[in-house]
Design a protein that fits this description.
The complex is a heterodimer of chains A (171) and B (102). With 171 residues, chain A is an all-alpha fold. In chain A, 84% of the residues lie in helices and 0% in strands. Chain A is flat and about 55 Å long. By secondary structure, chain B is an all-alpha fold. The chains are: A mainly alpha (171), B mainly alpha (102).
Chain lengths: 171, 102
Amino acid sequence: MTFVFYLSAAVAIYSTIMVISRVNAVHALLYMIVSLFSVALIFYTLGAPFMAALEVIIYAGAIMVLFIFVVMMLNLGKQAADQERKLLSAKGWIVPVVLALILIAEFIFLVTHGNVHALAGTSVEPQAVGKSMYTSYMLGVELAGLLLLAGLVGAFHLGKKQQSQPAEDEE
Amino acid sequence: MAVIPMEYGLLLAGILFSLGLIGLLVRRNIVFMLLSIEVMLNAAGLAFVVAGARWGAPDGQIMFMFILAMAAAEVAVGLALVLQMYRQFKSLDVDSASKMRG
C-alpha cells in the first residue's frame, strides 16, 4: 500500500520539475495542477483527508484558475492564436493526462481496496481539526480572515487604479 | 501494514521546496516566479501536514489551512500587480521593472 505514497511523490517531483522548466505558461499551469493533485493524494495517504479536499478545491480549483485567467488576460491577438494552436497539439497535454491517469488509478485503488488510515499510523479527522481550530487557534482564524480581507481590498485597489488614472488625466 | 516514515515525507517537502526556490531564482518571467512561490508554499504546507500526521495532532493541518489562506491572499495581490506591471511595461520580464522612479 505504501507504493501509493512513493508513486504520488514521484509524480509530484516530476511535474514540479516540468512546472519550472516550461516555456509556455499554460503548460506550466497544467503541470502545476497535476503536482497539486499528487500532493493531495499524499495528504490522503497521510491520514489528512480534509486537507486533501481543501488542496483540490482551493489550490487546484481556485488559485490555479486565477492564474489561468490572468494568463488569458495577458495574451494578445497573434500570440494568443499561436498558443491556442500549440494547445491543440497532443504534445502539450499528453504527459499531464498520463500523470493524472496515474493519480486517478491510485485514488480508485485506495478507495476500493484500502484501509487508508493505517498508512500514516494515525488519522486526524476533520472533526478534531475543527475543534482545535475554533478553540486554541481562534486568534489565528481571525487573523487569517483579516488577511483575506486585506488581500481582497488590495487586489481590488490594484486592479482598479489603472482605470481611474485616465479619468484623472481627462480632468 | 508498513507505515511511511516521516523522513520520506519531509524529504519530499524539501525537494519540492528546493525546486520552487530554483524556479524562483532561474526564471525571469513574473508569472513563473509567482508559480514557484506557490510551489514553495505548498511544500511548506506538506511539511506541516507530514509532521502533524507523525504526532497524530491536528495542529499541522491547521497550519496548512493558514498557509492556504495566506497563499490565496498573496496570489490575489500578486496577480493584480502582474496585471498592473503588464499594462505599464508591456512585458512580464521582471528586469524591465528594475529601475525606481526617483
